[in-house]
Design goal:
This protein is mostly helical. The chain contains 16 helices and no strands.
């Protein structure tokens, strides 16, 4: 089920979450609370909560959170104890920017199914974004330690982000490495491992981590920037120029492009050999 697969990275991926929310079309009826929109659903459809839930999941997967909420809330009237539905309502509320309601519904889902790893992971991300790090860590660990969680690398990655944010780089490194062991093809873990190794002063291994991130995701602007920056610091100027230029192409008119441009200007000011 598509909505069930939704994972929330949070923390370092706040920019991604904000970007996804900003892409939602701002239709006039989306400013209305979902409870008010329920009356717009045909009466016959209201009698079929599974169909309502399925329709809501389609809208949720498309990023149309307000409409998803309309159908989810209608389904909730018939299935108030469905933990998956409550989880999806929480995700939809977060997509609309209603964080308190999102956390409330995730906790409702967990009160019914305490071993619900997707809900624990999402709850951890939302709590961490509020600065509630201990509660967030507890939620992430519950997700990571659940043997039935299909994407435990996400929980490990989130724990790495949490510890990085707290300045505990060794712990962050350990969790990023755990994430990589759980899924060697997850590029963000290599990217953040590289940042963490840089913070620890291990630039040689940071360079390797960035390179692996690029192997998995060549179009990552940040991986291109960070790898190009380290090549620049290592004196590998030809390699640095290529990746810094890629960062600008991939993310024009962004802070990433600005940082890459500054390094490229420094390269041009260097005397030719």
């Amino acid at each position: 089920m598509r909505a069930k697969r939704i994972t929330v990275l949070g923390l370092i991926l706040l920019v991604c979450l904000a970007g996804c929310a900003s892409q939602i079309s701002q239709k006039s009826d989306e400013t209305v609370k979902p409870e008010a929109q329920i009356d717009q659903i045909p009466p016959e459809l209201k009698k079929n909560p599974k169909k309502l839930k399925s329709i809501g999941e389609n809208y949720l997967g498309a990023g149309n959170y307000a409409t998803a909420l309309k159908y989810f809330k209608a389904a909730e009237e018939k299935m108030p104890k469905d933990p998956e539905l409550l989880y999806e309502i929480g995700i939809a509320y977060h997509g609309r920017g209603f964080v308190d309601q999102a956390i409330e519904y995730l906790k409702k889902a967990l009160s019914i199914r305490p071993d619900y790893p997707e809900a624990n992971n999402a709850l951890g991300a939302f709590l961490a974004n509020q600065g509630k790090f201990e509660e967030a860590k507890e939620a992430f660990l519950k997700a990571l330690n659940n043997p039935y969680y299909e994407t435990p690398h996400i929980a490990a990655y989130n724990l790495g982000n949490l510890y990085y944010r707290l300045g505990k780089y060794e712990e962050a490194k350990n969790y990023y490495q755990t994430s990589i062991k759980l899924d060697p093809n997850y590029a963000p873990s290599y990217l953040e491992l590289g940042r963490t190794l840089e913070a620890l002063g291990d630039k040689a291994n940071a360079l390797k981590a960035y390179k692996e991130a690029l192997n998995l995701d060549p179009k990552s602007p940040l991986a291109n920037l960070n790898y190009g920056k380290l090549c620049y610091l290592n004196g590998d100027f030809k390699e640095a120029q290529f990746y810094l230029e890629q960062a600008i192409i991939l993310a024009p008119e962004t802070p990433i492009a600005t940082a890459a441009s500054e390094l490229l200007r420094s390269l041009k000011r260097m005397p030719s050999k």
